[in-house]
Design a protein that fits this description.
Length: about 200
């Protein structure tokens, strides 16, 4: 084998070594690059998922805040409307009750109903003093006194007082108030009932 052949064989050997060594180095590098890319994709997906979750959370908070503000505004609007309705309804209620007291037939129902309630609330012994608005006539007072005596009430004294409408029964330290102001004293409860009836009328 001459020098040229030996040189060629040596070069061929070097080339084979170079190819083998390159393969030994490239495959792990490729695997590492593939793993790096895979990890980068996983991390990118994680970041996108996290970003989407954060954006959804932010959106949900913003939507919740808007819905809460809208609900608050609706409640406030309903409350303002209820206040306006009640202001008118309260005035109307007082006017109608005054009119009922001044109408003889309705006044008789008023006095009879509340005197019957008073019989259960006020002691009968010792007599009653009844303070009343002057629309209640002497004849009606006499009829009421006769009926009350029949129910076991002792003496009944009627005294005109400057009340808007109705009457109050006083027996000792006990007072049964069936005047207009007495009947409307629990305004909060009455306004609740008024709102209920007004809502029924609207529906």
């Amino acid at each position: 084998m001459n020098l040229e052949q030996r040189t060629g064989a040596l070069l061929e050997l070097v080339d084979r070594y170079k190819v083998k060594r390159c393969a030994e180095l490239i495959e792990p590098a490729r695997a590492e690059a593939h793993e790096t890319v895979r990890n980068a994709i996983v991390e990118a997906r994680r970041r996108v998922t996290t970003a989407i979750a954060a954006e959804r959370k932010r959106y949900a908070i913003e939507v919740g805040a808007v819905e809460a503000a809208l609900a608050t505004e609706r409640r406030l609007s309903a409350q303002r409307r209820a206040v306006q309705l009640l202001a008118g309804a309260w005035t109307d209620l007082r006017t109608r009750l005054q009119a009922r007291w001044r109408a003889a037939a309705q006044r008789q129902r008023w006095t009879r109903a509340h005197l019957a309630r008073a019989l259960h609330a006020v002691p009968r012994a010792g007599g009653w003093r009844i303070e009343y608005e002057s629309s209640w006539t002497d004849k009606e007072c006499a009829q009421a006194a006769e009926w009350l005596c029949g129910e076991g009430v002792g003496a009944v004294e009627f005294i005109v007082q400057p009340v808007t409408a109705g009457f109050r029964v006083i027996a000792g330290h006990n007072v049964f108030d069936a005047t207009l102001d007495g009947l409307l004293a629990d305004r909060a409860q009455l306004e609740g009932r008024l709102l209920h009836h007004l809502s029924l009328e609207e529906s």
